[in-house]
Design brief:
single chain; 426 residues; mainly alpha; 21 helices; 9 strands; 60% helix
Length: 426
Amino acid sequence: MHFTSEQFQFLSSADTLKLIESELRNNVERYNAAKDARWFVTQLFPKIHDALTQQGNNGLLQQYQEIVHHCNWISFIMLTEDETLELFAHGLITMTQLSDNIELDPKLRGRLVAITDHAYRNTLKKKWQNAMLSNTETLSRQPLVVNQENRGTSIGVWLRFYLSQKGYDLVDPIERQQFILASPQVRVLSETEKQQLLKLIEVLEFTKRDSTKPEGVEETILFRKESGEVVSIKDNVAEPINERMLRQAEEFLALEQQDKVLGMKEIFLGDEQERGKIRQFQLNMIQQNLPLKDALLNAIQHEEPLRAHAALKLLSQKGTLMNVVSADPQFETMVREGLSKRFSETAQLAFHGVTDPIMMSVLLQEIYQTHLQLGKTQSARFAAQLEALLVKSGAAAFRGMVYADPDKNAFFWTPIVEENGRLKFS
């Protein structure tokens, strides 16, 4: 990578490191700003890495690596699988030094709930566990001594010893505390080291949970009792839910009651596996109170069609889809890109807002077909679901974006034609 002399001086300066450390502590970590943390790792750090490599400044580069680990824990939900494994293998000390306002459990859960295959969640957690047990970062100044044998000072050494004492079954929090307080071997640790070890043990215990069982599943499950009451189940504990979430839960559960659409109910709804995944994505968004616009854009960026569709359905159901897409210029850009591919410059000038039914059709085709790589009939079927929800919420103008063809057992986009420089549905 080529830099100007000013860029090189800035990127390779120790003062820049201090500036970034200050920003990390005072803003990124303080406000749990995951997007800012991710931006540093993916956009700025590669430039710094190249500059310091050219300079041969390995010492400064190592200090930056600690910042990368720090940012990756803050933005853990956004990491690739390989990036998470690298953190468990080489960034655990940084994890133990996170400030108290950075709650790790929701980040670990959040990274896993994006995986719809619960069995693979267990596979990934086992990989995390193995990386922890092999971690060579130094935890203690004094070595672990067992039967007069010096085992070493690394994180992996201490965690393997913990498992040798407590086993691979889940250990409750009280027993973990007793291990820290009562184990003769742990007494050699300083108070700071004991707290670090306890944090590591808590994460290790998280990796033992079975995601295929109710007591181990990462997300909250909504369940309607025979009495009609809706409760939430998390960590195998059922609790009543507040009024706001109850309204959302009732709306969510009502999605099961879709009316037949032109005699093509099964095709309209999709198969049970697809519906189950979409329901789970919706439930995650409701339970975690995720901003739906952010969830939608993130799913589009990562080309996750079912997660994107889940967000679009919730927005349509709540009647807020038009407000969201009209307020963010990213959606207008998508519409303009769609128009430029298909219509004349004169017709493009007819653009007068994303929420016009024709422009909404163009936007949804761009999202589903261009960004999410869905075929025409599958994207039209998804749009039919959104159209039904929009019309039900009172936006009758959006009726007719797609149509059903019973002879072909499929949904299709209503063609948009250009006539005298104006666009209309044919």
